[in-house]
Amino acid sequence: MSLLNPVNIPLSLYIHMPWCVRKCPYCDFNSHAVPDGQLSMDLEQQYLEALVADFETQVEMAQGRSIHSVFIGGGTPSLISAQGYQWLFDRLKARLDFEDDCEITLEANPGTVEHDPFADYLAVGINRLSLGVQSFDPEHLQRLGRIHSANNALDAIQQARQAGFERVNVDLMHGLPQQTEEQALTDLKLAVEHGATHISWYQLTIEPNTVFFRTQPVLPQDEVLEHIQEQGEAYLKANGYVNYEVSAWRKEKSSAHNLNYWQFGDYLAIGAGAHGKVTRPDGVYRFQKTRLPKDYLAKVPAEHVQMKRIEAEELPFEFMMNALRLNEGVAAAFYAQRTGLELDELNQKLMQLREKKLLIADSQRIACTEQGHIFLNSVLEAFL
Ligand SMILES: C[S@@+](CC[C@H](N)C(=O)[O-])C[C@H]1O[C@@H](n2cnc3c(N)ncnc32)[C@H](O)[C@@H]1O
Ligand code: SF4
């Protein structure tokens, strides 16, 4: 393994906001119901201060780089005030520069009590919104335990656009309990017609440690799921959306932040349970912050609960697991630049996958074929 040079690897920043008004029964993210359904100004300020202290401990990992993109995820990050973000960004920028055209995404929930006016977030420098809609169908919203109505969701997209956000992602889930093909398609149509410039379209998965895992709601048959997938894809394509990653559809630019994850770029990570990845001359490291908000606040700055170097033998799989999610794959040169390994060492595996017509790999680019995307898991097994 040769020495790595992080300078040419983009460095993003993930910020985790761990609270929600209510915990949804299908969700296994690190999110916790906020006491009394409202985040107090005291708790907000205490958490923001802890984030700054956390960031300070990570500045050395930047190794001279500026911040390429920021993603504020949750939880429900829109429970934090726009003013709070202004306070936070001022302090983060005093410690590390943000690139001039830095993409800053905020995950926002559509409920009226779940966000400040969108114009206020735009005014403090957030330039991309990601709205957690999930469905526009009142019955499905109720079954999913969401606190927003269908109208809240439609209004939120329009309000975001009217406030001046040119980039509005809508998160939708499909394959919901008892969902028909028509209902799933209607959800996509409403998002498209109301101005979503990007759609993240996820099939619902039943995760351990969730209420849905215990109650096992009845999900649509496999045949219905396949039809939803096929028809949804056809509808989005016909309406000018480009599928650039397994679940990501864009009508404008790709999400710079998510693209950096998939291109095996680096990211600092602050906030309860946040995961980061950084390249150092001697290897690629992953780290994680303590998960529970109360523990994160009890010891400031929070420690890294794990800082682990990825073993050289694990790097080919780790790299491919990210890169091959992208429809266009990645530049072949990224492999050596971001793992410190030579692509030639994989020649035999690449050739076998090429012969099976699952992979396109030459001196320029590594990508799955259409068939390779369908059988992504077996393609990835080759790199284990
Ligand atoms: C980290 S969540 C936070 C977004 C925001 N709090 C919300 O729910 O409105 C990001 C997205 O993951 C998706 N998601 C969450 N749980 C899921 C599950 N069990 N299966 C599929 N997608 C899921 C949802 O679309 C959600 O909007
Ligand atoms: S609002 Fe989002 S993050 Fe919070 S519990 Fe529901 S799905 Fe999870």
UniProtKB/TrEMBL annotation:
Regions annotated as coiled coil: 336-363
InterPro entries: Aldolase_TIM, Coproporphyrinogen-III_oxidase, Elp3/MiaA/NifB-like_rSAM, HemN_C, HemW-like, rSAM, rSAM_sf
Stored SUPFAM superfamilies: Radical SAM enzymes (SSF102114)
Pfam families, per database record: HemN_C (PF06969), Radical_SAM (PF04055)
BP GO annotations: porphyrin-containing compound biosynthetic process
Domain Radical SAM core: 5-245
Keyword terms: 4Fe-4S, Chaperone, Coiled coil, Cytoplasm, Heme, Iron, Iron-sulfur, Metal-binding, S-adenosyl-L-methionine
GO MF entries: 4 iron, 4 sulfur cluster binding; coproporphyrinogen oxidase activity; metal ion binding
Localization annotation: Cytoplasm
Family, similarity comment: Belongs to the anaerobic coproporphyrinogen-III oxidase family. HemW subfamily.
Entry-linked NCBIfam families: hemN_rel (TIGR00539)
Name this protein carries in UniProt: Heme chaperone HemW
Annotated source species: Acinetobacter dispersus
Taxonomic lineage: Bacteria, Pseudomonadati, Pseudomonadota, Gammaproteobacteria, Moraxellales
